[in-house]
Amino acid sequence: MKALVLAGGRGTRLRPLTHTSAKQLVPVANKPVLYYGLEAIRDAGITSVGIIIGDTGADIREAVGDGSQFGLDVTYIPQEAPLGLAHCVLIAQEFLGEEPFVMYLGDNFLVGGISGLVDAFRVGGYDAQILLTKVDEPQFFGVAELGPQNEIIALQEKPAHPRSDLAIVGVYSFSPAIHEAVRAIRPSARGELEITEAIQWLIENGYSVHSHMVTGYWKDTGRLKDILECNRIVLELIEPDVKGTVDGLSEITGRVILEAGAVVENSILRGPIVVGADTKVTSSYIGPFTSIGSNCLLQNSEIEYSIVLDGSSVHGVSRLAHSLIGRNVEVSCAAGVPNTHQLMVGDHSQIQVRA
After folding, report:
1. CA dihedral 227, 224, 84, 187 (to 10 degrees)
2. What is the pLDDT of residues 1-54, one digit of tens each?
3. Contact 181, 199 (CB under 8 A)
């Protein structure tokens, strides 16, 4: 069995961060979201992986390499434009051949791995297996409509008026029959080859399509609140590991990971949190569910329930929360009067300031 990982797309809902970086590489607990998916694939016993890449392909290649760091053999498959999930299957046919495969959306986060799901697909002998979960905003997802016996009646892709609240989770299993389906469908009104339409084609042509309800935690990490929620879930599971230096004036409580080279001086750290290598925290407070990247500086500041990426600094800020701060960003307190906010903000940003 092979795996097809989708790591293209433009990540418009996470702009401006994704203007300069792939959305699949946004870190959760200081590890890119994509890595969790690759590890889940490996743990399911799959080693041959094709990765669909787009405009941010160079970043993905640099982060993943040949896959050996994960115990995988990786093949990169460029996609000229984000033309739909079914288009990814279409252009990957040479790599996939006649083997069954798992298709994993690289910006999805699924706690508990996929081993059980892959085993169920293998044993069941299905032509397709889709995972479903109830969501509050089904209009943002592919949606499944079930009949009285929980059979799949129809699928919709990001419908304006969803007929159910059952979202299709971004992990699929397919037999080679899917290749005929993706060749049979036409682009949707969005101009994309929709995987929901390909699965619908399988249903209408008598192929076996099985659904499975996900009972564990799953998120599509395409939005800020979802990234922060995934960060919280992972941090709930960490064990304390203090490899950095903490002075006698500091206080550390709860589950805290302090990576090698990190320095904490005259500060309070309340876990669960992760502080990256060679980061310095001085006269500051870091509250629960916060991940600080490597080579950062926090000085005279307070932050909680947030993610700070590598190389950034926060200086003299009274309280940051529910924030995602990109790489090599400087956040500081303006000095003097009048009491103003001074901002240099890129396109598609979201800023909240105290009135």
Report:
1. 150
2. 999 999 986 545 555 555 456 778 888 999 999 999 999 999 999 999 999 999
3. yes
